[in-house]
Amino acid sequence: MHTPPSGVPTDHADHADRADRADDVLALARLATRRGAVREMLGWLARRTGGPAVLVGDTGRVLAGPGGEHDPAVARLAVGVAAEAAVELHRRGAVSAVLGGGEGPPVHLIALDTGPRTYLAVVGPDDPHCGTLLADAARTLALCWRLEQSERARRRIESAEEHSREAVLHLLMVGSVPAAQRIAGALRPALPTVVQMYVIECPHARRREIVRRIDREAEGAAWIVPCPVRPNHVLALVPPEPGQGAVAVSGDPHSGPAPLDLLIVRLVPECRVGVSAAVALRDTPTAYEQAIHALAVARNAPERRARFGGDVDVTVLAGPEGYVWASELLAPCLRYAPARRADPGPQELLGTLGSWLSFGGAASRHLKIHRNTLAARMRHLDELLGVEVSRSLAAQSAAWLALRLHTAPQAAAVRTQAPPGHTATLDAVLGTPAAGTWARAQLRPLEQAGPTAGLETIRTWLRADARLPAAATALGISLPGARKRLTRAEDVLGRSLLTAPSAKYELWLAMRALGSL
């Protein structure tokens, strides 16, 4: 602190003090504009006074400390002394004081003008000017501390809302529509009864910014969630647009408003957008698959957006035989009784199976479980079902179809009408005329494509259990070459093959129905 030398006139010393004080206030004002302003100012105060500076609550809890390098032993001692002094000052009901002294170091304290009582404490300096410096610092620190506390509260609220919205999406994906609607009704906007799913692929660092832009363009009507599985995806459930995007989007002012997906790619050129067809809210999982398939097309489309134009509803080919077969395949899991109360039951295991079939190893993020827990559950499912679902594409395709048929609305009624002792097989399910018609429709685009994106490439890939290195070896081409062929096949089919959820199960079933595998 400034001390006038001997023989200097008092008015000169006062002038020097005022100049020092003005410099201090200016330095604090500059520090207040920096990122982490509170820590920066506490570090500056520690250097300016020669003693550690901290913010302490009225219970003695240290709320903030200075940045920079400090002797850990000295810092711990100073923090303990400051905490005791803050509790004592609060007990007295005073707003500022100098406590301690004698054997211990003095502690200068001053209350900040904040909600919960918070004290600025500086330990050690024995200087009469310290009080003036702390009084000036307390005004700026109080403002910066309130701003930092408000920002923390905003982030907590934002995180809580994000997790709540993610929970609503999870409930929709597992079929708990009423529960999802109740939570959504409290958060707003309410979920529409008919929706379109948008999957927006974007830079991870810009997800929050893009969410805000989409929300603004959708005028608050969209239910927007950063994808819990893929860090570069944003999911949006929105009411269907009139004509589902058939409105012209030219520069003609009479052409009507541009579709939301076009607005998104115009606003953020790095985005790719896949859009589902309009579906009932209970069919949100189907909408998600459709949007993922559309996104696979959008990645290579010059306009960077695509809308789903196919059909993933395999329940149209099943009939009564299919529902009985699905029930029999899943019966060991449905009858399973966990040995411990904490172990997953039948519905949780089926949810795990469905998530793994859609996302593979990323299902651990979708289900919010450890990857080792996911691996253990998959081994358990292999044992229960008697097939290696975790390894064999044939078993995966059968399980995928069985889950689709088991959860169909009419499945329960058909199962109760089945004759006692009746058994069904997958070949019988896929051997109907309806199944043949469906299978030929699935494979027709590949038949019309060239050899680099045609049936033989896909058949080889499926025979290799959809493993790209093995498929490349069987085709006699490089791994990048095999990947390029499958990317071309994605364009031909308008479906996702290399990104989950994948159309590989449907293609395997279609080829099995036609005897091509």
> Which percent range fits the helix content?
40-55%
Structural class by helix and strand composition: alpha+beta
Strand content: 5-15%
Give the CA-based shape. Answer: elongated
* Overall number of strands: 11
The unreliable regions are: 1-8, 244-255
Number of helices: 20
- The whole-number mean of residue pLDDT values reads 83
- Rg result: 33 Å
What is the end-to-end distance?
87 Å
Largest sheet: 6 strands, mixed
Describe what you observe in this structure:
This protein has helices at residues 10-31, 37-49, 72-92, 130-173, 177-187, 207-217, 260-267, 284-298, 319-334, 346-359, 363-367, 371-385, 393-406, 411-417, 426-430, 433-448, 455-463, 468-475, 479-493, 504-513, and strands at 53-57, 62-64, 96-99, 107-111, 118-123, 194-201, 223-226, 233-238, 272-275, 279-280, 305-307. Helix 9 (319-334) crosses helix 13 (393-406). Strands 6, 7, 8, 9, 10 and 11 form a six-stranded mixed sheet that branches. The chain is elongated. Helices cover 54% and strands 10% of the residues. The chain starts with 9 loop residues before the first helix and ends with a helix. It contains 20 helices and eleven strands. With 517 residues, it is of the alpha+beta class.
How does the SSE layout of this entry go?
Elements: H1 10-31, H2 37-49, E1 53-57, E2 62-64, H3 72-92, E3 96-99, E4 107-111, E5 118-123, H4 130-173, H5 177-187, E6 194-201, H6 207-217, E7 223-226, E8 233-238, H7 260-267, E9 272-275, E10 279-280, H8 284-298, E11 305-307, H9 319-334, H10 346-359, H11 363-367, H12 371-385, H13 393-406, H14 411-417, H15 426-430, H16 433-448, H17 455-463, H18 468-475, H19 479-493, H20 504-513
Parallel strand pairs: 9-11
Antiparallel strand pairs: 1-2, 1-5, 3-4, 4-5, 6-8, 6-9, 6-10, 7-8
